[in-house]
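REQUEST ID: PR-0412
SUBMITTED BY: lab tech R.K.
PRIORITY: routine
TASK: structure prediction, single protein chain
INPUT:
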Amino acid sequence: MRVIDIIEKTKNKIELTEEEITWFIDEYVKGNIPDYQVSAWLMAVNFNSLTKKETYYLTKAMLNSGDKIDLSSIKGIKVDKHSTGGVGDKASLVVGPLAAACGCVMAKLSGRGLGHTGGTLDKLESIPGVTISLSEERFLNQVNTVHLAIAGQTQNLVPADKKLYALRDVTGTIKSIPLIASSIMSKKLASGADVICLDVKFGSGAFMKTTDEAIELSNEMISLANQAGKKAVCFITDMESPLGKAIGNRLEVLEAINCLKGKGPKDLENICTEIVSYMVFVSGIRNSKEEAKKLVYEKLRDGSGYNKFLEFINAQGATTNTFDESFVSCKEIIPLLSKKEGYIAKIDALTLGLVSMRLGAGRETKEDSIDPNVGIVLNHQCNEYVKVGEPLLYIYKNDKWDENIISDLYNAYSFSDKPIKEFKTIYKIVE
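STATUS: complete
OUTPUT:
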């Protein structure tokens, strides 16, 4: 078998066999195929796509390139949740404890943030003492006892994806539906859950810019899950504006806690309760989605979700249970005062995510360090009325700053004289 023949076939839209794709991925992971040839193939895929069969063969080859997590020792139906990434997306910090409080079993391997999108692991590590490096034994034991563990991926979990993603990142081949779907699903399938809930975001702050792209990706991922004998559901959610009000690691932890206490922003609460309700239903804890949602709101209102959050972080080494204003420590909090009066028509998520990254809340490269205390907190969300001189948001800053931050933030806002037609937080659910 020759690499050049595989490149030529994809370039000419000739379907590859399972044997060819498996050989190609295996040899690349072993270091026998150079990056420049794989880059050529990725670019061919980017232009010509892959068939559904090829996408499944690729996902399967990536899945089998390293270790898999065996969750058979954990009792009950195992659920998992993944987000395609967004600005202010702290949903996993709410979904996990709330689902566990309802009796679901959630074993989640998560990732770090890069660029304008935040990572669950970075948020967890902003809590003093919390570790995301769990041995397999500790991970499994914690899920059995607490019903929730969130850890970083092991080095040998889907190594093919690590190599391919790094190459895609520097060759302009990120935005390919088959490559995105195989990347996500190979890792989720390797993680061993029975049911995978996928939060597929679209809009300014997401990788998928349109609803059509989000639906296409959702259908691809559900197909891959079904072919692997797993159940998946996709919640297609809006990322034109940030999710919730907080952007930045400790700021988002505080907002997640407020949500678990029943005092969070409605958009964040809606997404989290919808996902957890589905988990409760498919886990057989309640016989209907309506009854499942009723249970979820009971656990949200009576403090069970927050208590489970404390139990979860303590199991992972937290040295504090104190989450008040002192949890966030920065040198200066700067209000951004409105220059206009009217209804906020749009808050551009991408701009706010990039500004937050420039403040130190995110990474431009994987080597960058994160300041857990900096970020942005919105004073108002879309469709709320503001007057001139009223704070639009607050900037939490330490040492990182540049002269364009204020003007960029002003440019992220647009206003209307009348209330805008509200967009659903969850656009569609695809099963």
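NOTES: The radius of gyration is 22 Å.
REVIEWED BY: pending
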